[in-house]
Amino acid sequence: MSTPRQPRETRSAGLEPLAVLPVFVPLQGKRAVLAGSNGGAPWKVKLLAAAGANVDVYAPEPSEELLAVPGDIAAGSVTLHHREWTPADLTGAAFAIGAMEDEDDCVRFVSEARKAGAIVNAVDRPHLCDVKFGAIVNRSPLVVGISTEGAAPVFGQTVRARIEAMLPRGFARWVGAARDWREAVTGRFHGFSERRGFWERFTDRAFAEPDRAPTERDLEELLGQAEAAPKGGAVTLVGAGPGDAELLTLKALRALRNADVILYDDLVAPEILDYARREARTMLVGKTGHGPSCRQDDINALMVSLAKSGKQVVRLKSGDPLVFGRAGEEIEACRLAGIPCAVVPGVTAAQGAAASLGVSLTHRDAARRLQYVTGHDRRGALPEDLNWGALADPSVTTVVYMPKRTLGVLLERAIAEGLAPATPALVVFNATRPEQATVTGTASDLAARIEAAGLEGPAILMVGEALGRREAGVSVESGQDRLAI
Q1: Domain count, the chain
Q2: Given 287, 311, 317, 404, which residue is catalytic?
Q3: What is the residue range of 245's domain?
Q4: Do 248 and 241 meet the contact criterion of CB atoms below 8 Å apart?
Q5: The predicted structure's pLDDT at residue 12
Q6: pLDDT tops 50 at residue 317
């Protein structure tokens, strides 16, 4: 029996170190100053004006490109002053940019601008800047800023191009509608969860129909859907897949982003929790094979209690919750408590492992049936009621979950019951994760190979002729690369 332990709240490690702090500065109707006329000046003036600033430009000999800027702007205003700047010109400026060729002149400008209380940027002089400009994706009012902190400008521009390709231009209309509708939504829904529900539906519709303009009919329909949505707490059992975060389904991502509380197992990859809302509580309710585990009754009680308090609870499980995930007990606990319960399936460990190995579990020349069995019972021993005739069937691929403790006995008994000793067999450790490792062999020698390999981590056993194309040995696999040992 595993050692009991209590559910415990966990906290994210927080943000990794940031090279810069990304902030967005509102300049609508505010005064900005640019002094100088070097090569970067025209673009900086256009940016300031595009943000709605009233820009005064001081340049005794403006370039032709700078002279043309006032006729190119779509917002704000630009006034050219054909003279040198003075400290008095900085009075009332919210933002100031030095675009001089001379270093000393730029240093003096930056000093005076800071005295005037302006945010300061100096073109091509990062050591003088309070803030720096990055690459921009403009779907205003949706704006994406990208910075490489000057390390790789071309890389930043490439990232910008990729993001632009992913964000339809129609998103600008949807985000504009969100801005216009926010007051109406806030007035209709006083609870945070109701408002969030509205905006989740709004976002789903924007992504589904990004190229059309939203209308008042959309607003009324979305308000109606939000009002008709069930109130109170609920539980969603979510399959996290075997480990690779990219195997999460879109529905699983949506559930994670909607959750108030996430109860997760030890086998869930930590990076999967990064997809949750930052405000969500995360609680480890670990159940590990033959190790310290939370009691299932305690998990059920916690899950129901949180939902009864009005929380949206995600019970996050490795693989698929309906495959040896004790989902039946948790669904029943919710049903008895009158708590709405939904299930989001996930990629099973068997599917993930087979895909990473490039093996078909149901190859038509080798397998007529696929069966999943558990490697241990409630006591941690080999189950007494396994169908040994089915396990010995040469036309079947058998996948055994949680096999580590009983693997040797299971294979020995299967051979005694008729399984051919030469039947291909393998165990995958840490399926789909960077540290994935595979031990291959036959039903008769696999147990010895595993003992010699000394590998750790969650494991899954596969037995059957469909696996016969792999060579015996040990391999460590990461992504597309496979290294034989």
Answers
A1: 4
A2: 287
A3: 234-347
A4: yes
A5: 66
A6: yes
449-474 as b/e: b if 16+ CB within 10 A: bbeebebeebbbbbbbbbbeebeeeb
Same domain? 332 vs 371: no
Instruction: Please give the pLDDT value at position 47.
Output: 93
Task: Report residue 61 as tokens.
Answer: 């000999």
Residues 368, 448 within the same domain: yes
- Annotated catalytic residue within 56, 244, 265, 393: 265
**Has 251 been annotated as catalytic?**
no
CATH assignment of the domain containing 343: 3.40.1010.10
- Token output for 278: 């930052």
pLDDT tens for 255-289 read 998 899 999 988 888 889 988 887 889 999 876 55
Counting Cβ atoms within 10 Å, is residue 50 exposed (0-12), middle (13-18) or buried (19+)? middle
The stretch 463-468 carries a mean pLDDT of 91
Residues 442 and 385 in one domain: yes
What are the pLDDT digits (tens) for 89-134? 999 999 999 999 999 999 999 999 999 999 999 998 889 999 998 8
**Residue type for position 272:** I
Please name the residues in contact with 224: beta carbons below 8 A apart, sequence gap of 6 or more.
none
Tell me what percent of the residues of the chain surpass a pLDDT of 70. Answer: 94
**287 carries an active-site annotation:** yes
335 and 385 fall within a common domain: no
- Domain presence at residue 484: no
Structure tokens at 155: 């890389």
Burial classification of residue 313, based on how many CB atoms lie within 10 Å of its CB (0-12 exposed, 13-18 middle, 19 or more buried)? buried
pLDDT for res 481: 39
| Rounded Cα distance, 266 and 258, in Å | 21
By the 8 A CB rule, do 9 and 280 touch? no
